[in-house]
Amino acid sequence: MNDPQRKTFLSLDPLPDMVAAEARARTAFIQATPQTLDALVAEHGDSVEILASRGKQAVGRGLLDRLPRLKLIAAYGVGYDKVDAVAAAERGVLVTNTPDVLSDDVADLAVALLLATVRRLPQADRFVRAGEWAKCAYPLTSTLRDRTVGLVGMGRIGQEIAARLAAFRIPIAYHSRTPASVPYRHFPDLLDLARHVDALIVIVPGGKATERMIGAPVFEALGPKGIVVNVARGSVMDQDALIAALRDGTIEAAGLDVYEGEPMVPAELAAMDNAVLLPHVGSGTHFTRDAMNRLFLDNVLGWVEEGRVVTPVRECLALTSR
Ligand code: NAP
Ligand code: 8YV
User: Can you give the residue ranges of every domain in the chain?
Assistant: First the structure.
């Protein structure tokens, strides 16, 4: 495994088959699992130059200290909240991710989840399958027609979501720390946005700055007609507060693609009729995963073969201009 001609590449989680095959052909590739990681780091830590993260294991100072020759951390996905990119940059370690190529599919999914939640589509499907239709008509539902939709986050994916919602001819507003170049009303304060709208789509990065930013005060501000859709990260939502808000009628319903502690989903949430639950599938199409595979490999192999990466993250930009 420690071929001196090849760079040692450790993946913290299983990678897609075609990515692993190409990595195996071009590097000394080691694929860890959560169970084998510690032993593999103990055995190969001194030679690892490239690390892959799929956002499940934390890559913090502790792990970086055990990988003294590390040069590149390649995140499979646009979100890299599990990677301490500041600590990596301090050590001269580049971090890359896979932005843009997934924005369309994630935006499609966010709008689909909003509609499924408001119009109760999974519940209607269950109604037909259970033979209930022959007994009575399906109850009327809420609508997007009388709503203003607020986006928490107006970056690459947020802007694609807004473009789709604009075609639905519903008012759009958003919150982010700095205004974006978009024709929608910006709210510097999240609670002001929540008071102004009756549906929120959350699409900010995970990490300390956004941890549990969507909690009880936001649900109270949204009110009893409120809908919350989270396609960002589970860490962004106070999940216990959400369950309480759904149970007590503080808000109407939620659509979730991501969870605190996923893939585990609390039984109380799973039992709720006013929640639509997806298993983190925002970018999960053949088309988009092929594009993510390619960009991930272009970063890794570009660095291995030419010393260049395609999509470094913001915290590491200074390293690429050296
Ligand atoms: P992006 O282009 O970096 O946009 C992030 C947006 O969030 C920006 O508008 C940013 O504006 C805002 N933001 C960041 N920190 C904030 C804070 N503390 N408070 C308020 N707003 C904040 O990222 P993206 O490509 O759109 O992706 C966003 C996230 O979506 C990813 O990081 C990932 O976690 C998630 N994602 C989920 C899936 C899925 O399968 N469900 C798939 C892809 C991505 P300011 O910096 O001005 O605040
Ligand atoms: C993926 C994601 O599910 O890009 C992201 O941030 O959350 C999703 O695209 C994930 O990264 C693939 O492991």
Answer: 8-101+287-320, 103-277
